[in-house]
Write a structure and sequence with these properties.
By secondary structure, this protein is an alpha+beta fold. Helices cover about 25% and strands about 40% of the residues.
Amino acid sequence: MAAPSDSALNTELSVFHDGYLDGFLISESSVLFFLSTMEKQAYVLIAKGVERMKADGFRQGNIIFDVLARRADQLSIGDVRSLYDTLDGEVGERQTRTIWERLTQEGRVMLEINPSYGCECLLIAQTLTVHLRAEASVFLSDWRPN
């Protein structure tokens, strides 16, 4: 969903509190996140049209605190600065504002995975969808890693 309503996608993503980020696969402009709930129900979150991604602290047993999706118009200047490593000062402020305006105009979405332990991840994508891993085989059958 390109511009998720705050309640729809985030309600769906709330099931991952105290769950696990099992891994991710990057291919061209798509990223598949393999997530599981505390009850061990396995999902895949598919981000397409990924423009920027930052993932830090990946460890064995990554425990999720929360997974959030925000429309570009809900991003702060700090979110954009963090993802795009813009310059400090007046030049950086203009650069950051220009990026924010473009992301908003394009209807981009930010995915944020916050850890209790392990990997923290931010990304900007065109669409985000969540599927049970067993049902995602249709999407994965055409997957061609680089």
